[in-house]
Amino acid sequence: xxxxxxxxxxxxxxxxxxxxxxxxxxxxxxxxxxxxxxxxxxxxxxxxxxxxxxxxxxxxxxxxxxxxxxxxxxxxxxxxxxxxxxxxxxxxxxxxxxxxxxxxxxxxxxxxxxxxxxxxxxxxxxxxxxxxxxxxxxxxxxxxxxxxxxxxxxxxxxxxxxxxxxxxxxxxxxxxxxxxxxxxxxxxxxxxxxxxxxxxxxxxxxxxxxxxxxxxxxxxxxxxxxxxxxxxxxxxxxxxxxxxxxxxxxxxxxxxxxxxxxxxxxxxxxxxxxxxxxxxxxxxxxxxxxxxxxxxxxxxxxxxxxxxxxxxxxxxxxxxxxxxxxxxxxxxxxxxxxxxxxxxxxxxxxxxxxxxxxxxxxxxxxxxxxxxxxxxxxxxxxxxxxxxxxxxxxxxxxxxxxxxxxxxxxxxxxxxxxxxxxxxxxxxxxxxxxxxxxxxxxxxxxxxxxxxxxxxxxxxxxxxxxx
Amino acid sequence: xxxxxxxxxxxxxxxxxxxxxxxxxxxxxxxxxxxxxxxxxxxxxxxxxxxxxxxxxxxxxxxxxxxxxxxxxxxxxxxxxxxxxxxxxxxxxxxxxxxxxxxxxxxxxxxxxxxxxxxxxxxxx
Lengths: 467, 125
Hints:
Chain A is α/β, with parallel strands linked by helices. Helices cover 39% and strands 10% of the residues of chain A. Chain B has one domain (8-110): CATH 2.40.50.100. Chain B has helices spanning 29-35, 82-85, 89-92, 114-124, and strands spanning 8-9, 14-19, 22-27, 38-42, 49-50, 55-61, 65-69, 72-79, 100-108. In chain B, the strands form two sheets. Chain B has a six-stranded antiparallel β-sheet. Chain B has a three-stranded antiparallel β-sheet with strand order 4-6-7.
């Protein structure tokens, strides 16, 4: 497929812009560029076909099953899009007079209030751009808390070895030393390993619960108690909030602050490069450090980004919260857990679950024994799934399971889809024993086969350059 | 899978060869096979102290980033900088692609001979 720049024809135009109805002004000569930017020139027909073609080349939740573990690729109701497209929300500017932005401010305030209820927290901000930025903001809250008390000896953040890779990266970016602790055999926090590293240099603990292998850590109250006893604070990674929203609150588990990817859990399509949005919530003792917009929320606020973050994503989140309501939110979480357990039980007997017990919203398959017998790897299985019209699950994560495939079906899949998916996995299990060569070279029916991952990583071409 | 008999091995899948008082260290055939295609390597500096069982660098493959552990304690006397431009050599020739040399050795991890390491790998799958 050609890039849009390669389809460009000099002088080709479409007349989408209305006539200018305001006074034209010229920039000072020193601020003007010397030549026009190399923007593509296409007719509306060709532009429309270009994006339709792109659409046909990708697989989204609207195309089919997308069980990408730890990513919560669920269907997003259309009503959330409709609300975010209302002109009163799209046509507003954050610097418009307060009288013109009352509705938007009410959206922000109401969404904060509802999310604080889901989180079990006292205050909330929408400033961070997305998840990793929210983690960064959350750990800075912990840092500021210690510094404000003159407690400068706390230099370490504890992260379990099953954590998302962004957790240690965040702690490091905030200037902390990262202390990795091994997980117990069930993927949960090893209490003895935790006790061994806690001390007066502990700034905090970063944790996801349910954890990365889809298991709810039953020792959570003891874990957060131990960290608090050592003088540290507890940060909740909201990556897996979809499993527990409305059922159990991170604040009640003993966490001091949390980030939640609104685009993941609260109904914004994601995976396409954004925009996302992140809510960071905290308990009252951290609220004074929470970043807010200095222009919108009053002078003196520290900011991590401009204005109210990605506002339209918050509109979608609020619509989602209001349409599902107090009964619907926990029901969504319960169905996410039910669907994951149903699919795991249907696949069991072929591919082996890494942890053979009731899971939360996702589960991990361990293909190491399967690979030993057939020579077919988790990567081969993932690639073959593409030929069957399914997006591959997350591969080779978490690192504590070898040959891992991690499936998160989400609550928005029907029983028929789950039955179909389980049947595909069973077919692939048999295929690996009969024709492993086919799977080593899959996919065979996709737009591209196996890309050169080494070259893509080492010398990525991410920019079009005019010939 | 290749397990040269003249080398010693760690449970973290590094190999070690003694050349006089100097330890030569790399990653094993099993390690490169499990990692998949290696795309980057982070190397230490000459003169750095290393501790047996602790990380001295990392390798990034298309799958994941993994620490490389030192089999012995001592001081790094040489670093194979060629690997920075050609990390794929760790895949194509793991035993020919040494990563660091260590001198002034003060301690050693529990090391396996080739037969014991081959059995260990068979168990890990």
